[in-house]
Each structure stands twice: as structure tokens, then as C-alpha cells.
# Entry
Amino acid sequence: MKKIVTLGLFCLTAIFVKAQTNTAPVKDIDKLLSFTNADFDMGKIPAGKPLEYTVTIKNIGKDTIVLKEVKAGCGCTTPKYRSNDVILPGKSTIISLGFNGGATGEFYKVADVYFNDGLSKQLRFHGFALTDSATNKPTNPVNRR
# Structure
């Protein structure tokens, strides 16, 4: 009998805990904000030459959104933005992402953008860094026959 009562209490507790869980719907950021250059192709770039590009974020929703923070995926990427920037409905803000060009060959970089209400978006840029053909020559060439 004790086992049945214990099992019953366990089930009731589980039901009450489930009822207390927050079931608020997760907001779809792409229905609230539009992003230009969210996945930017830099194309072929010279290796070692810093570059910068901008991402425009427009509030297409009905609520005010606040840009909290931008975190670069690595030290070669430098974000420029206004922390706690308020983006009113219909208005825009700009984030600048700088890349130090330290890569050689194909590269793929990310930056995470955080907003109020737990909203976030990952920005991506990629390309191919080319070295000057003069720098590819060996410093001590060997004659081969």
C-alpha cells in the first residue's frame, strides 16, 4: 500500500512541476529584425590586409529591440557597435565587422549578436585570402634536373 501511495504522490508532484514550467513561445528573430550581409562573402582578398564590412539591422516588428552585445568568434574579428542601442520599430542600426586578414586560404568567421529578451543572431563572413606570388617563392631554391 505504501508503494502505491508513494507512486501516486510522485505522479502528482510531476504534474504540478510540469504545470509550473514556462511555456512562453520562443520568438523568431527573423520575424522581428532583418539583417543585410548576415552571411557575407568577401570573395578573394589579399592576405594580411585588414578589411571591414557593415551589417544593417532593421526592426521590422512592432516592439522596440535593444542591441546588447556583439561577440566575435576569434581575435581576428573586431566588432564596432553601440551597446544598448535602442532600435525602434521601422528603424535601423549598423554593426561594423573588421577582419585583420591574418588568414591564408579559405576562411570562415562568425560573430554572435545579442539583443534583449534573449534574442540572438549569428553573423557569418567568409572568403579566400590570397598571398602575393612573390611571397610564395622559396627563400632557398633548389635546382632540380
